[in-house]
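Researcher: Let's do a round of design. I'm pasting the structure tokens now; please hold your answer until I've finished.
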């Protein structure tokens, strides 16, 4: 997917292979960690249960 290159930036050089990133130097990619996303959903569910 669109975020695969963020993993490849680390994986390819670690495997001894060159990796070119064809993006502007100022480009930014937001990253959400799965654990953080799950925690946010759990907190949201708890807030909904309190309101209802």
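Researcher: That's everything. Go ahead.
Model: Designed sequence:
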């Amino acid at each position: 997917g669109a975020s695969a290159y963020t993993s490849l930036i680390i994986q390819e050089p670690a495997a001894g292979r060159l990796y070119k990133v064809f993006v502007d130097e100022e480009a930014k990619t937001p990253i959400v960690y799965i654990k953080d996303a799950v925690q946010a959903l759990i907190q949201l569910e708890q807030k909904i249960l309190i309101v209802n």
